[in-house]
Amino acid sequence: MWDMIFGFLKPVFGIIDKVVPDRAAADKMKADIQASIVAGDFKEFEAVVNSQKDIIVAEATGKGWLQNNWRPLMMMMFGFIVANNYIFFPYLSLFGVKSTMLEVPEPLWNLLQLGIGGYVVGRSAEKIIPGVLAALKK
Length: 138
Fold this sequence. Notes:
Blueprint: H1 2-19, H2 23-38, H3 43-60, H4 65-94, H5 106-137
Helix pairs in contact: 1-2, 1-5
């Protein structure tokens, strides 16, 4: 069970590594999270998950259209770029149709991976964490 929990934390730790520039501080933050979970103290972990949830809920329940939809619009744009470069461009090129392959800079790929990974991890966490926390508290 611990392998599953710490495996679930790998994406979170990856985000910490990308966001916290000081390696020692990032390692301490990850060690503190692991120690809290092993000790059965989930307050820090729950606080992080709840703060992320609160931000997303605030954006989703905002009054402005752009405030509600900027994340899905960005992901749709990324999806179009990937579809263009790896589906449309290769097939059109096979038939001699001139088309343009869009340049995808490294930071854009990183943002795409973070966006998709964050969405998948966030949705998984939303479904799994309550059950895991309840099982560990028993």
